[in-house]
Design brief:
This protein is mainly beta and 213 residues long. It is built from four helices and ten strands. The structure holds calcium ion (2 copies).
């Protein structure tokens, strides 16, 4: 008989002869030590590995919504509606699906089985739902497109109408907007109302002013 640390019990790695520290009956009853989380498969994993977008439990239970729901979102974070993951506020309504959401399709006849059984199919990400984005307040430094999505303020009325980081509906370069738009710091306003980054000033002929310093 030898002694092992409690945190080596039911951690998926056998430490004792006959693997008695990983015995399913023991693990079903075992309380994981502080800082550990218990998979549905009864294995104890590091609590930091819960809801980190990588499967650590053999049954994937550490990435299920019910596991993610146990994590507290930070104050600069938003909780996804279905996956229950926490994403940064800046990732909400940015045209990219960050919630990684799926819907469970149970195997026929297994509808009442636990939610980790079945297969999963991707669904539209809750952080990009039209209804949410319509009323979403863009964080500081972001500008709200007509379709509700947030883009970097520097991308409004862009020079040569560049489309990187742009509103997909083109609302960031509408002439009536750009006419009255104050370009952000580090940008100059061209005669055609496009905002050009400082470095480009003096290379073009369409500028109101050139910096003569
Ligand atoms: Ca994980
Ligand atoms: Ca997003």
């Amino acid at each position: 008989m030898k002694c092992i640390d409690n945190d080596k019990v039911c951690d998926g790695v056998p430490n004792c002869r006959y693997e008695s520290d990983e015995n399913p009956e023991l693990c079903a009853e075992w309380n994981c030590t502080t800082g550990k989380w218990k998979c549905h498969s009864k294995r104890c994993i590091d609590a930091k590995l819960v809801c980190d977008r990588q499967v650590h439990c053999s049954d994937g239970s550490d990435e299920l919504p019910e596991a993610c729901a146990q994590i507290l979102c930070g104050k600069d974070q938003w909780r996804c509606a279905t996956s229950k993951r926490c994403i940064d506020l800046t990732k909400v309504c940015n045209y990219q699906d960050e919630c990684g959401e799926e819907k469970r399709i149970p195997w026929p006849g297994y509808e009442d089985y636990p939610e980790w059984l079945g297969y999963f199919t991707k669904i539209p990400s809750s952080d990009e739902e039209n209804e949410l984005c319509e009323s979403w307040q863009c964080p500081q430094g972001k500008w709200k497109c007509d379709d509700g999505r947030c883009i970097a303020t520097e991308s409004v009325c862009p020079y040569r109408r560049q489309d990187s980081g742009a509103c997909k509906d083109g609302s960031h370069k509408k002439p009536e907007l750009c006419e009255n738009w104050n370009c952000t710091a580090g940008f100059w306003k061209c005669k055609n109302n496009e905002c050009v980054i400082d470095q480009v000033v003096c290379n073009g002929h369409d500028l109101v002013t050139c910096f003569d310093g």
